[in-house]
Prior knowledge:
The protein has helices at residues 3-28, 50-66, 81-87, 102-111, 147-156, 171-183, 195-203, 216-221, 268-282, 285-293, 303-324; strands at residues 39-43, 70-74, 96-101, 123-133, 135-139, 162-165, 188-191, 209-212, 224-229, 255-263, 297-298.
Amino acid sequence: xxxxxxxxxxxxxxxxxxLGCATIGTAFADTSSYPSKPIKITVPWxxxxxxxxxxxxxxxxxxxxxxxxxxxxxxxxxxxxIGTGAFVRERPDGYSLLMATSSTNAINPNLYKTLPFKPVxxxxxxxxxxxxxNILVVPKDSPFKSVAxxxxxxxxxxxxxxxxxxxxxxxxxxxxxMFIKATGVEVTHIPYRGSGPAAADLIAGHLxxxxxxxxxxxxxxxxxxxxxxxxxxxxxxxxxxxxxEELGYKDFEAAAWYGIAAPAGxxxxxxxxxxxxxxxxxxxxxxKGRLQDFGAVVAGGSVQSFEDFFxxxxxxxxxxxxxxxxxxx
Length: 329
C-alpha cells in the first residue's frame, strides 16, 4: 500500500471514529447556538513569531464574524509538539481550535519517531488560512546581487558559504536542502534555536544567506536584500523580486502554511460554520493587506480542500525530510 493510500485510509478511519465522537460531542455542543462563549486557538509556538502574529490577526476577525471573543493560547516547546499534543485532548465542541502549521502537522510526523498526537485522525481540518513562501535573503552589504552570484561563489569554493535555519528539519532547512538539490552546490547548514537568532546572525554578516519565511520586515527595513522567492508567482509585497521558476529553477516552491483545525469528532455543522467565518475574514481588505505585508499569500477554501491538502502535505514532506537528512532524535 502506498504512503498516500495509507494516509487516506487513516483519514477515512479517523472520520469513522470521529463520527462516534461527534455523537458524544453533540451532547455538550449545542450546534444551533454555537458559539455561545469564547473560542480558544492554541498556538504551539512562542508569542511574537509568524504563527502567533497570523493567529492573532485572524482571531480578531473571527471574533467579529461569530460575535464571541477569540483567545490565543501560546503553548511552545518541542518543535510545536507540546502545544499540539495538548490540543488534541481538548473537547471536540468547537471552542478549542489549533493553528496547524506545516512544521507541526506535516514536517514533524516525518521528523520525530514518536509524537503526542496522531497526524491525521486526531484532527478535523477546518480551513487553510495562508501560505508564506520562503525568500532567499542576504545581508544588505552582501557582495551577492543575485542567485547566480551565490551559485557561482559556492561552486568556486565548495562548502565555504553558509546558510542558517530555525533548526534541523525546519522549513528553512528543508528549503535550503531544495536549493542545494536544484543548484548542485555544496554549502554549509547552520541550525539555530529559532529563525529569529538565525536572521540576527544573517543581518550581522555571520551567515551568507537564508531561505526564510519571516524576513519581510527585515527586507522592508533594508537590513536584508531579497534575491528570489520560492513561490509560483511573485509576491505583491515584492513585485521586483523574481521567483526561482523565472530564474530557471523548475518546481522550486517552498512555503510554510497555516490553517485552523479542530479536534477530531467536532460536529460537522460547527466545522462548516467556522470555515465560513474564516473565509469571510480572509476576504476582508485589511486582513488581506496585513497578511501580504507579512509576505503571506491568502488561502481560504472549503473544508474538503484543506482536508485533502492536510493529508497530501504529510506525504510531500516525507520526501523532503528524507532528502535533507534531517534528524532530531
